[in-house]
Specification:
heterodimer; A: 291 residues; mainly alpha; MetI-like fold; two-stranded antiparallel ribbon; 1% strand; globular; B: 272 residues; MetI-like_sf (chain B); transport (chain B)
Chain lengths: 291, 272
């Protein structure tokens, strides 16, 4: 009996507040927009027969016909992909250096990586507004150094979005890679060097392949949330920055087109399923390797 | 081998500068006298003064705190239960679905979680406000709690619990007196994680709130959209300060705890 309660309480909670809401999103994505409250038809009140008869794939057809959505999906994928790559290039050397640091420093270095993660996401993104704007610190510094003659426009472009994503998701990249390199048996690298590898070759042929699981995990941890990101493109990006999270938010709050917003959400979810499954496979393989 | 090569020193220096300079600049310029946030005009704490007179911000802070305390406490209870079920529950019907529902919210884009919960609340005709935000936050943060707690539970030596049961403890007593103290650090960090996630959330709160409840991130968002303001810098600095003190204290405490545990283990070995 006690076991039943223990299972049932969290189970029912998640069913009611996680699974059922998805079913509703899916249902509304097949409905039509209506000038009513709630602004879609048919609703549950119309009875089950009318409910099922009123559903169609019209909104999905609409999404494929309108250029905006197609472009938003492609550009979200592109922005998420490039930022993940840059985050890896910035994060790997940091994770490597942390794992190779004297042991008594590692806890402090770890804390320094985790601290920004606890700090408000919104504030960390906001901090860049003052840095990247035309009169901002970056332009002031570059003008003073004489690198440029007139201020660069970075804020309100995709560049600012890349910087924002790399900045906020960097800890997610560093932590799994650090864990992978720290576990790595250093005698393997020594063996490679004894057998005639240069340090660079040993790094390329031993360290990188052995930290592969950490790299894959880090990339997914950055790519997946970056794809649906709303705050960064809205705050740092310009009107030309199309990302699907932003489109969904605006479709819902500004246009009040719930059926289309729901259809946008359903497609975003379908796109995400592939990387999520790949990520879970990687995690499973890692767990099996540990055992 | 454990010496830092020049390349490693450079990458750490630049990496941490990248992580910390933006926040440092934000804090420094919260003490700027000028309203222009990018030109230094002298030291002043006036923006902190105006911040504390701004009723709208104080109200929003109070709402946020209420939501965070309620949702993180609920999430800790539900998340710990879920972790127990995942690690100890054995087989039951729909186990795969259950673990799927625990892991899915961790990677779900906030816009989707927010949208789907809002549609649910409207569908069942629930009045939106503090309660609906609490429900929404509890749902996604209980998953984070259960991941943290279940990783601790799965490394836990079950024979300790069995020993307590053999010695006559009831199952509930064994949990209360043996299991809970051992997993307590994970439960506490789960609570802290849930608390921070709730404090921080903008997107899900924007979807699930009603006209009566505005949280601090929503308030910050609406003024940040208009550009940089010194008041927001001051508010951000206060939040950064609180988090830094909290994280540093927590890590010092856990370090001291680790040292004490090691010393006790050594002492125990000497006795035997």
């Amino acid at each position: 009996m006690r076991r039943f309660v223990l299972i049932a309480v969290p189970y029912l909670w998640l069913l009611a507040l996680f699974l059922v809401p998805f079913a509703i999103v899916f249902k509304i994505s097949l409905s039509d927009i209506a000038l009513a409250i709630p602004p879609y038809t048919p609703t549950l009140k119309d009875g089950l027969g009318a409910l099922l008869a009123g559903l169609d794939f019209e909104n999905f057809v609409f999404l494929t016909q309108d250029d905006l959505y197609w472009k938003a999906y492609v550009s979200s994928l592109q922005i998420a992909f490039i930022s993940t790559l840059v985050t890896l290039l910035v994060g790997y050397p940091m994770a490597y250096a942390m794992a190779r640091a004297p042991e008594e420093w590692r806890a402090t270095l770890m804390m320094l990586v985790i601290l920004p993660f606890w700090t408000s996401f919104l504030i960390r993104v906001y901090a860049w507004v003052g840095i990247l704007s035309t009169e901002g610190f970056l332009n002031q510094l570059l003008l003073w150094l004489g690198v440029i003659n007139e201020p660069l426009t970075i804020l309100n472009t995709n560049w600012a979005v890349y910087i924002g994503i790399v900045y906020t998701y960097l800890p997610f990249m560093i932590l799994p890679i650090y864990a992978a390199i720290e576990r790595l048996d250093e005698s393997l690298i020594e063996a490679a060097e004894d057998l005639g590898c240069s340090r660079l070759q040993a790094f390329w042929l031993v360290t990188i392949p052995l930290s592969r699981n950490g790299i894959v995990a880090g990339c997914f941890l950055v790519f997946i949330p970056a794809l649906g990101e709303f705050v960064i493109p809205s705050l740092l990006g310009g009107s030309g920055t199309l990302m699907i999270g932003k489109v969904l938010f605006e479709e819902f709050f500004s246009n009040r087109d719930w059926p289309v917003a729901s259809a946008v959400a359903v497609i975003l979810l379908l796109i995400l399923i592939i990387p999520i499954i790949l990520f879970q496979r990687n995690e499973q393989r890692q767990q099996e390797a540990e055992q | 081998m454990n010496r830092l090569s020049p390349f490693n020193v450079v990458s750490l220096t630049f990496g941490f500068a990248f992580l910390y300079l933006p926040m440092l600049i934000l804090v420094i310029f919260s003490f700027n006298e000028s309203k222009l946030v990018t030109v230094w005009a002298g030291f002043s704490t006036q923006w902190y003064g105006t911040l504390f007179q701004n009723e709208a911000f104080l109200d929003a802070a109070w709402v946020t705190l209420k939501v965070a305390v309620m949702s993180s406490t609920l999430a800790t209870v539900l998340g710990t239960m879920a972790a127990y079920v995942l690690v100890r529950g054995g087989r039951f019907m729909g186990r795969t679905l259950f673990s799927g529902m625990i892991y899915a919210p961790l990677v779900m884009p906030e816009v989707i979680t927010g949208l789907s919960l809002l549609l649910l609340f409207i569908g069942i005709g629930m009045d939106r406000g503090v309660m609906t935000i609490v429900l929404a936050h509890t749902t996604f943060s209980m998953c984070f709690v259960s991941v943290v707690v279940s990783s601790r539970l799965s490394t836990f030596d079950r024979s300790l619990e069995e020993a307590a049961l053999d010695l006559g403890a009831s199952q509930f007593d064994a949990f209360r007196l043996v299991t809970l103290p051992i997993i307590a650090p994970a439960v506490i960090s789960g609570w802290l994680l849930a608390f921070t996630l709730s404090l921080d959330d903008l997107v899900i709160a924007s979807f699930t709130t009603g006209p009566a409840a505005t949280t601090l991130p929503m308030k910050i968002w609406s003024s940040v959209r208009l550009g940089v303001s010194p008041e927001i810098n001051a508010l951000s600095s206060i939040l950064i300060g609180i988090v830094s003190v909290g994280v540093i204290t927590a890590s010092l405490l856990s370090k001291r705890h680790a040292v004490r545990v090691r010393r006790e283990e050594q002492a125990a070995q000497r006795v035997t």
